[in-house]
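As a warm-up, study this chain.
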Amino acid sequence: MVFWLTAIFFSAILVGESVAQSKTPKTLPGTMADYLLQEEVVRQLIMGDTVADPSCNRFRRVVRTEVTELPRGQFFPDGRLRSGGWDERWTLERCGAEIPYLVKFIADGKGGTFIKFSVSLKR
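Now compare it with the structure written out below.
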């Protein structure tokens, strides 16, 4: 069965200066997003997945992330993406089932990032 669940959220995330290395929280392996962006993606994925399937009352968690399309576009001198974006697959565990989401990261032209979600066709 082929289906797409287009997420109802499209968020602008402005990513600030990196936190000092000694204070940087643990990040998820497999993603190119920094900690602040990861935190926002996790928050919105869990919130959106809860709306998509409210019958699961158990804890949801990200079990895997992987880059599916490398960054493309123009970069600022400090390495942040100015235009373009990249894609990743984030797999969420929901009541024992793994639900893959396609996460698109799109540069806002000012050093921040828009994020957009949809259920991935690849399971």
